[in-house]
Specification:
Layout: H1 3-19, H2 21-25, E1 26-28, H3 37-43, E2 48-51, H4 59-76, E3 80-86, H5 87-97, H6 106-109, H7 124-139, E4 148-153, H8 157-169, H9 173-183, H10 194-201, H11 209-218, H12 226-247, H13 252-274, E5 280-283, H14 286-289, H15 296-299, H16 305-313, E6 317-331, E7 340-344, H17 352-359, E8 363-367, H18 372-377, E9 382-385, H19 396-400, E10 401-404, H20 406-409, E11 412-419
Length: 426
Protein backbone atom coordinates (compact mmCIF):
# COMPACT_ATOMS: atom_id res chain seq x y z
CA UNK A 1 0.00 0.00 0.00
CA UNK A 2 1.43 3.40 -0.96
CA UNK A 3 1.90 6.20 1.56
CA UNK A 4 -0.97 8.13 -0.09
CA UNK A 5 -3.24 5.08 0.17
CA UNK A 6 -2.29 4.68 3.82
CA UNK A 7 -3.07 8.34 4.50
CA UNK A 8 -6.47 8.07 2.81
CA UNK A 9 -7.25 4.95 4.81
CA UNK A 10 -6.45 6.72 8.09
CA UNK A 11 -8.45 9.79 7.15
CA UNK A 12 -11.44 7.57 6.37
CA UNK A 13 -11.01 5.76 9.67
CA UNK A 14 -10.73 9.02 11.61
CA UNK A 15 -13.91 10.34 9.93
CA UNK A 16 -15.74 7.11 10.73
CA UNK A 17 -14.66 7.34 14.35
CA UNK A 18 -15.94 10.89 14.50
CA UNK A 19 -19.36 9.70 13.39
CA UNK A 20 -19.47 6.65 15.63
CA UNK A 21 -17.05 7.38 18.43
CA UNK A 22 -18.13 4.70 20.85
CA UNK A 23 -17.73 1.79 18.45
CA UNK A 24 -14.44 3.03 16.99
CA UNK A 25 -12.93 3.98 20.33
CA UNK A 26 -12.68 0.37 21.55
CA UNK A 27 -11.24 -1.93 18.93
CA UNK A 28 -10.23 -5.59 19.27
CA UNK A 29 -6.54 -6.35 18.78
CA UNK A 30 -6.03 -9.45 16.68
CA UNK A 31 -2.27 -9.42 16.18
CA UNK A 32 -2.70 -8.28 12.59
CA UNK A 33 -0.84 -5.56 10.70
CA UNK A 34 -3.73 -3.09 10.91
CA UNK A 35 -4.33 -3.36 14.67
CA UNK A 36 -3.13 0.16 15.38
CA UNK A 37 -4.45 2.08 12.36
CA UNK A 38 -6.74 4.17 14.61
CA UNK A 39 -3.87 4.97 16.97
CA UNK A 40 -1.68 6.07 14.07
CA UNK A 41 -4.50 8.30 12.89
CA UNK A 42 -4.26 9.94 16.33
CA UNK A 43 -0.45 10.27 16.18
CA UNK A 44 -0.30 11.64 12.62
CA UNK A 45 0.40 15.19 13.84
CA UNK A 46 2.21 14.30 17.07
CA UNK A 47 5.74 15.29 18.04
CA UNK A 48 5.95 12.91 20.98
CA UNK A 49 4.12 9.62 21.62
CA UNK A 50 4.25 8.27 25.18
CA UNK A 51 3.85 4.48 25.43
CA UNK A 52 3.33 3.28 28.99
CA UNK A 53 3.15 -0.01 30.87
CA UNK A 54 1.13 -1.08 33.91
CA UNK A 55 4.08 -3.16 35.14
CA UNK A 56 7.81 -3.20 34.45
CA UNK A 57 7.74 -6.97 34.02
CA UNK A 58 5.03 -7.96 31.50
CA UNK A 59 6.17 -9.38 28.17
CA UNK A 60 3.17 -8.22 26.14
CA UNK A 61 3.61 -4.55 27.04
CA UNK A 62 7.12 -4.56 25.55
CA UNK A 63 5.96 -6.49 22.51
CA UNK A 64 3.06 -4.18 21.69
CA UNK A 65 5.16 -1.07 22.25
CA UNK A 66 7.70 -2.48 19.80
CA UNK A 67 4.97 -3.11 17.20
CA UNK A 68 3.63 0.43 17.55
CA UNK A 69 7.09 2.01 17.57
CA UNK A 70 8.14 0.23 14.40
CA UNK A 71 5.08 1.57 12.57
CA UNK A 72 5.64 5.09 13.92
CA UNK A 73 9.18 5.01 12.55
CA UNK A 74 8.41 3.40 9.21
CA UNK A 75 5.17 5.23 8.41
CA UNK A 76 5.33 8.56 10.24
CA UNK A 77 9.03 9.35 10.42
CA UNK A 78 9.64 9.16 14.16
CA UNK A 79 13.40 9.29 14.59
CA UNK A 80 14.19 8.09 18.10
CA UNK A 81 13.00 6.11 21.09
CA UNK A 82 13.66 7.59 24.54
CA UNK A 83 13.45 5.02 27.31
CA UNK A 84 13.12 4.97 31.09
CA UNK A 85 16.68 3.70 31.25
CA UNK A 86 20.12 5.02 32.28
CA UNK A 87 21.89 7.25 29.78
CA UNK A 88 25.30 5.55 29.47
CA UNK A 89 24.25 1.87 29.09
CA UNK A 90 21.70 2.89 26.46
CA UNK A 91 24.40 4.75 24.50
CA UNK A 92 26.09 1.40 23.95
CA UNK A 93 22.84 -0.11 22.64
CA UNK A 94 22.31 2.91 20.39
CA UNK A 95 25.77 2.40 18.89
CA UNK A 96 24.86 -1.19 18.08
CA UNK A 97 21.57 -0.11 16.49
CA UNK A 98 23.51 2.28 14.25
CA UNK A 99 26.01 -0.42 13.25
CA UNK A 100 28.84 1.00 15.36
CA UNK A 101 30.71 -0.27 18.40
CA UNK A 102 32.23 -3.69 19.03
CA UNK A 103 29.20 -5.69 20.18
CA UNK A 104 28.48 -8.77 18.05
CA UNK A 105 24.75 -8.85 18.83
CA UNK A 106 22.00 -7.21 20.89
CA UNK A 107 22.62 -9.47 23.89
CA UNK A 108 26.19 -8.20 24.11
CA UNK A 109 25.06 -4.59 23.62
CA UNK A 110 22.56 -4.95 26.48
CA UNK A 111 25.17 -6.42 28.84
CA UNK A 112 26.04 -2.90 30.00
CA UNK A 113 22.89 -2.94 32.15
CA UNK A 114 24.47 -4.38 35.29
CA UNK A 115 22.55 -2.63 38.06
CA UNK A 116 19.24 -3.63 39.60
CA UNK A 117 16.78 -4.11 37.95
CA UNK A 118 18.60 -5.68 35.00
CA UNK A 119 15.63 -7.63 33.62
CA UNK A 120 13.72 -4.52 32.59
CA UNK A 121 16.16 -4.11 29.68
CA UNK A 122 18.06 -7.38 29.49
CA UNK A 123 15.21 -9.56 28.23
CA UNK A 124 14.32 -11.25 24.96
CA UNK A 125 11.65 -8.67 24.03
CA UNK A 126 14.13 -5.78 24.16
CA UNK A 127 16.75 -7.95 22.45
CA UNK A 128 14.41 -8.57 19.52
CA UNK A 129 13.37 -4.90 19.41
CA UNK A 130 17.01 -3.79 19.27
CA UNK A 131 17.82 -6.27 16.49
CA UNK A 132 14.77 -5.01 14.59
CA UNK A 133 15.93 -1.39 14.84
CA UNK A 134 19.40 -2.36 13.63
CA UNK A 135 17.82 -4.10 10.64
CA UNK A 136 15.64 -1.04 10.01
CA UNK A 137 18.73 1.17 9.90
CA UNK A 138 20.39 -1.16 7.43
CA UNK A 139 17.36 -0.87 5.16
CA UNK A 140 17.29 2.93 5.18
CA UNK A 141 18.26 4.78 2.03
CA UNK A 142 21.86 6.06 1.80
CA UNK A 143 22.28 9.34 3.65
CA UNK A 144 19.10 8.97 5.71
CA UNK A 145 19.48 9.64 9.42
CA UNK A 146 19.48 6.42 11.48
CA UNK A 147 16.83 5.77 14.09
CA UNK A 148 18.25 6.27 17.57
CA UNK A 149 17.86 4.97 21.13
CA UNK A 150 18.38 7.15 24.21
CA UNK A 151 18.11 6.61 27.96
CA UNK A 152 16.54 9.46 29.92
CA UNK A 153 16.75 8.34 33.55
CA UNK A 154 19.07 9.75 36.22
CA UNK A 155 20.11 6.36 37.56
CA UNK A 156 23.57 5.10 36.56
CA UNK A 157 25.54 7.86 38.28
CA UNK A 158 28.85 5.92 38.52
CA UNK A 159 28.82 4.97 34.84
CA UNK A 160 28.07 8.56 33.84
CA UNK A 161 30.85 9.93 36.07
CA UNK A 162 33.34 7.52 34.46
CA UNK A 163 32.14 8.59 31.00
CA UNK A 164 32.70 12.27 31.80
CA UNK A 165 36.25 11.61 33.02
CA UNK A 166 37.09 9.52 29.94
CA UNK A 167 35.70 12.21 27.67
CA UNK A 168 37.61 15.14 29.13
CA UNK A 169 40.78 13.01 29.34
CA UNK A 170 40.83 12.86 25.53
CA UNK A 171 41.26 16.64 25.51
CA UNK A 172 43.17 17.53 28.65
CA UNK A 173 45.04 15.55 31.31
CA UNK A 174 44.55 18.43 33.75
CA UNK A 175 40.80 18.62 33.09
CA UNK A 176 40.49 14.87 33.64
CA UNK A 177 42.34 15.15 36.95
CA UNK A 178 39.98 17.94 38.04
CA UNK A 179 36.94 15.86 37.09
CA UNK A 180 38.24 12.85 39.04
CA UNK A 181 38.77 15.05 42.07
CA UNK A 182 35.25 16.48 41.84
CA UNK A 183 33.73 13.01 41.60
CA UNK A 184 36.05 11.36 44.14
CA UNK A 185 33.56 11.57 47.01
CA UNK A 186 31.21 9.22 45.14
CA UNK A 187 33.87 6.51 45.32
CA UNK A 188 32.52 4.73 48.38
CA UNK A 189 29.07 4.33 46.81
CA UNK A 190 29.83 2.80 43.42
CA UNK A 191 28.14 -0.55 44.26
CA UNK A 192 24.95 1.20 45.48
CA UNK A 193 24.70 4.95 44.76
CA UNK A 194 21.47 5.23 46.77
CA UNK A 195 23.50 4.86 49.97
CA UNK A 196 25.24 8.15 49.19
CA UNK A 197 22.11 10.13 50.02
CA UNK A 198 21.53 8.27 53.27
CA UNK A 199 25.06 8.91 54.51
CA UNK A 200 25.09 12.59 53.50
CA UNK A 201 21.70 13.33 55.11
CA UNK A 202 22.81 11.54 58.28
CA UNK A 203 25.94 13.72 58.42
CA UNK A 204 28.31 10.78 58.01
CA UNK A 205 29.66 11.79 54.60
CA UNK A 206 30.43 15.02 52.73
CA UNK A 207 28.17 16.26 49.97
CA UNK A 208 29.34 15.89 46.37
CA UNK A 209 26.90 18.55 45.14
CA UNK A 210 29.45 21.31 44.60
CA UNK A 211 31.82 19.15 42.58
CA UNK A 212 29.05 17.70 40.44
CA UNK A 213 27.66 21.16 39.69
CA UNK A 214 31.11 22.59 38.92
CA UNK A 215 31.84 19.79 36.45
CA UNK A 216 28.50 20.25 34.70
CA UNK A 217 29.14 23.99 34.41
CA UNK A 218 32.34 23.29 32.47
CA UNK A 219 30.56 21.17 29.86
CA UNK A 220 28.95 22.59 26.72
CA UNK A 221 25.15 22.09 26.57
CA UNK A 222 25.02 23.32 22.95
CA UNK A 223 27.82 21.12 21.65
CA UNK A 224 27.33 20.13 18.03
CA UNK A 225 29.74 17.20 18.36
CA UNK A 226 27.95 13.98 19.33
CA UNK A 227 30.56 12.97 21.92
CA UNK A 228 30.51 16.41 23.55
CA UNK A 229 26.72 16.31 23.77
CA UNK A 230 26.77 12.81 25.28
CA UNK A 231 29.36 13.85 27.86
CA UNK A 232 27.28 16.88 28.85
CA UNK A 233 24.27 14.61 29.31
CA UNK A 234 26.38 12.29 31.47
CA UNK A 235 27.43 15.26 33.61
CA UNK A 236 23.72 16.17 33.94
CA UNK A 237 23.02 12.63 35.16
CA UNK A 238 25.73 12.97 37.83
CA UNK A 239 24.49 16.36 39.01
CA UNK A 240 20.78 15.42 38.97
CA UNK A 241 21.49 11.99 40.44
CA UNK A 242 23.45 13.49 43.33
CA UNK A 243 20.52 15.74 44.23
CA UNK A 244 17.99 12.94 43.71
CA UNK A 245 19.72 10.53 46.09
CA UNK A 246 19.90 13.20 48.80
CA UNK A 247 16.25 14.17 48.37
CA UNK A 248 15.18 10.52 48.70
CA UNK A 249 16.00 10.83 52.40
CA UNK A 250 14.70 14.39 52.83
CA UNK A 251 11.77 15.06 50.52
CA UNK A 252 10.19 12.17 48.59
CA UNK A 253 7.94 14.55 46.62
CA UNK A 254 10.93 16.65 45.64
CA UNK A 255 12.93 13.61 44.54
CA UNK A 256 10.07 12.34 42.35
CA UNK A 257 9.55 15.74 40.68
CA UNK A 258 13.29 16.20 40.15
CA UNK A 259 13.39 12.88 38.30
CA UNK A 260 10.39 13.78 36.11
CA UNK A 261 11.90 17.13 35.19
CA UNK A 262 15.27 15.54 34.43
CA UNK A 263 13.65 13.03 32.08
CA UNK A 264 11.50 15.70 30.43
CA UNK A 265 14.59 17.86 29.83
CA UNK A 266 16.37 14.90 28.27
CA UNK A 267 13.45 14.35 25.87
CA UNK A 268 13.57 18.05 24.95
CA UNK A 269 17.32 17.84 24.25
CA UNK A 270 16.89 14.77 22.06
CA UNK A 271 14.07 16.41 20.09
CA UNK A 272 16.18 19.52 19.58
CA UNK A 273 19.03 17.44 18.15
CA UNK A 274 16.62 15.69 15.79
CA UNK A 275 15.73 19.09 14.31
CA UNK A 276 12.63 21.31 14.11
CA UNK A 277 10.50 18.40 12.91
CA UNK A 278 12.04 15.87 15.28
CA UNK A 279 9.57 13.29 16.59
CA UNK A 280 10.18 10.80 19.42
CA UNK A 281 8.56 7.78 21.01
CA UNK A 282 8.92 7.48 24.79
CA UNK A 283 8.79 4.19 26.73
CA UNK A 284 8.17 4.36 30.48
CA UNK A 285 5.79 3.21 33.21
CA UNK A 286 2.19 4.43 33.25
CA UNK A 287 2.98 6.46 36.39
CA UNK A 288 5.33 8.59 34.28
CA UNK A 289 3.46 8.52 30.98
CA UNK A 290 0.00 9.51 32.19
CA UNK A 291 -1.06 13.04 33.15
CA UNK A 292 -0.58 13.24 36.92
CA UNK A 293 -3.26 15.93 37.19
CA UNK A 294 -5.88 13.17 36.76
CA UNK A 295 -4.45 11.06 39.61
CA UNK A 296 -3.97 10.91 43.38
CA UNK A 297 -0.31 11.74 42.80
CA UNK A 298 -1.12 14.99 41.05
CA UNK A 299 -3.47 16.04 43.81
CA UNK A 300 -0.58 15.49 46.22
CA UNK A 301 1.77 17.65 44.17
CA UNK A 302 3.55 15.08 42.02
CA UNK A 303 4.38 15.85 38.42
CA UNK A 304 4.59 13.35 35.56
CA UNK A 305 6.23 13.19 32.18
CA UNK A 306 2.83 12.99 30.53
CA UNK A 307 1.73 16.20 32.23
CA UNK A 308 4.96 17.99 31.27
CA UNK A 309 4.68 16.81 27.66
CA UNK A 310 1.06 18.00 27.42
CA UNK A 311 2.01 21.36 28.89
CA UNK A 312 4.83 21.72 26.37
CA UNK A 313 3.32 20.16 23.23
CA UNK A 314 -0.45 20.31 23.82
CA UNK A 315 -2.21 17.99 21.34
CA UNK A 316 1.09 17.13 19.69
CA UNK A 317 1.71 14.87 22.69
CA UNK A 318 -0.20 11.57 22.61
CA UNK A 319 -0.34 9.65 25.89
CA UNK A 320 -1.00 5.90 25.68
CA UNK A 321 -1.43 3.75 28.78
CA UNK A 322 -1.42 -0.03 29.12
CA UNK A 323 -3.66 -2.21 31.29
CA UNK A 324 -3.87 -5.86 32.32
CA UNK A 325 -6.31 -7.88 34.39
CA UNK A 326 -4.16 -10.84 35.47
CA UNK A 327 -1.55 -13.40 34.50
CA UNK A 328 2.06 -13.30 35.67
CA UNK A 329 4.75 -10.67 36.09
CA UNK A 330 8.51 -10.53 36.66
CA UNK A 331 9.49 -8.49 39.69
CA UNK A 332 11.56 -8.61 42.87
CA UNK A 333 10.28 -8.84 46.46
CA UNK A 334 12.57 -6.01 47.60
CA UNK A 335 15.06 -3.51 46.23
CA UNK A 336 18.18 -5.35 45.08
CA UNK A 337 16.61 -8.78 45.62
CA UNK A 338 16.61 -11.42 42.91
CA UNK A 339 13.76 -11.15 40.42
CA UNK A 340 11.39 -13.99 39.60
CA UNK A 341 8.04 -14.64 37.93
CA UNK A 342 4.98 -14.10 40.16
CA UNK A 343 1.33 -14.85 39.63
CA UNK A 344 -0.35 -11.47 39.18
CA UNK A 345 -3.49 -11.31 41.25
CA UNK A 346 -6.69 -10.52 39.33
CA UNK A 347 -7.39 -6.78 39.27
CA UNK A 348 -9.50 -5.56 42.16
CA UNK A 349 -13.23 -5.21 41.70
CA UNK A 350 -14.09 -1.63 40.78
CA UNK A 351 -10.67 -0.91 39.31
CA UNK A 352 -10.18 0.46 35.81
CA UNK A 353 -8.57 -2.84 34.78
CA UNK A 354 -11.51 -4.90 36.01
CA UNK A 355 -13.88 -2.56 34.20
CA UNK A 356 -11.99 -2.91 30.91
CA UNK A 357 -11.94 -6.67 31.49
CA UNK A 358 -15.75 -6.74 31.77
CA UNK A 359 -16.50 -3.99 29.24
CA UNK A 360 -14.64 -5.09 26.12
CA UNK A 361 -12.68 -7.76 24.24
CA UNK A 362 -9.75 -9.48 26.00
CA UNK A 363 -7.28 -7.43 23.93
CA UNK A 364 -8.44 -4.00 22.83
CA UNK A 365 -7.41 -0.46 21.96
CA UNK A 366 -9.54 2.18 23.69
CA UNK A 367 -9.29 5.72 22.32
CA UNK A 368 -10.64 8.52 24.52
CA UNK A 369 -9.46 11.55 22.56
CA UNK A 370 -12.17 12.46 20.08
CA UNK A 371 -14.66 10.09 21.72
CA UNK A 372 -16.51 12.27 24.28
CA UNK A 373 -19.06 9.63 25.29
CA UNK A 374 -16.40 7.07 26.09
CA UNK A 375 -14.18 9.66 27.76
CA UNK A 376 -17.08 10.65 30.01
CA UNK A 377 -17.61 7.01 30.95
CA UNK A 378 -14.01 6.81 32.27
CA UNK A 379 -13.77 10.37 33.64
CA UNK A 380 -14.36 9.49 37.29
CA UNK A 381 -11.43 8.37 39.48
CA UNK A 382 -11.11 4.60 39.81
CA UNK A 383 -8.55 2.30 41.32
CA UNK A 384 -5.60 1.64 39.06
CA UNK A 385 -2.76 -0.82 39.62
CA UNK A 386 0.89 0.07 39.20
CA UNK A 387 3.56 -2.62 39.54
CA UNK A 388 7.12 -1.39 39.19
CA UNK A 389 10.26 -3.41 39.79
CA UNK A 390 8.83 -4.72 43.09
CA UNK A 391 5.70 -6.79 43.53
CA UNK A 392 4.32 -7.03 47.08
CA UNK A 393 1.39 -9.40 46.75
CA UNK A 394 0.60 -9.55 50.46
CA UNK A 395 0.00 -5.79 50.54
CA UNK A 396 -1.03 -5.27 46.93
CA UNK A 397 -3.98 -2.95 47.64
CA UNK A 398 -1.88 -0.62 49.77
CA UNK A 399 1.35 -0.69 47.75
CA UNK A 400 0.20 -1.05 44.15
CA UNK A 401 -3.11 0.80 43.76
CA UNK A 402 -4.00 4.47 43.49
CA UNK A 403 -6.94 6.46 42.09
CA UNK A 404 -6.94 7.94 38.60
CA UNK A 405 -9.44 9.14 35.99
CA UNK A 406 -8.38 7.03 33.03
CA UNK A 407 -9.61 9.30 30.22
CA UNK A 408 -7.97 12.34 31.82
CA UNK A 409 -4.75 10.47 32.37
CA UNK A 410 -4.40 9.06 28.83
CA UNK A 411 -5.54 9.76 25.29
CA UNK A 412 -5.76 6.01 24.66
CA UNK A 413 -5.35 2.76 26.58
CA UNK A 414 -4.34 -0.69 25.38
CA UNK A 415 -5.90 -3.39 27.56
CA UNK A 416 -4.56 -6.95 27.50
CA UNK A 417 -6.58 -9.22 29.76
CA UNK A 418 -3.85 -11.77 30.50
CA UNK A 419 -0.17 -10.91 30.38
CA UNK A 420 2.91 -13.04 31.08
CA UNK A 421 6.16 -12.49 32.91
CA UNK A 422 9.22 -11.24 31.05
CA UNK A 423 12.17 -13.54 30.87
CA UNK A 424 15.60 -12.39 32.00
CA UNK A 425 18.87 -12.60 30.07
CA UNK A 426 21.26 -13.27 32.94
Amino acid sequence: MSMNARSLRRMSLALACGLAALSCASQPLTGGDRDYDALLALTAGARVVMLGEATHGSREFYRERARITRRLMEEQGFGAVVLEAPWEPMRRVDAYVRGEGRDRDAVAALSGFVRFPTWTWRNSEVRDFVEGLRALNRERRPGAAPVRLYGMDLYGLPESADAVVRHVARRSIAAAAAARQRYRCFGDYLPEPMLYGREVVAGRAPSCAGGAAAQLAEMDPAAADEDDFAAWQSARVVSSGECYYRLLYQDSLGSWNLRERHMAATIAQVMERLGPQGRVVVWAHNLHQGDARATDQGRNGELSLGQLMRERHDEQAVLVGFSTYGGSVRAAPGWGARDRAWRLLPALRGSAHERLHRRGPPAALWIFRGAPELAAEFAEPQLQRAVGVLYLRATERRDHYFHAALSGQFDAVIHLDVTSALDSLR
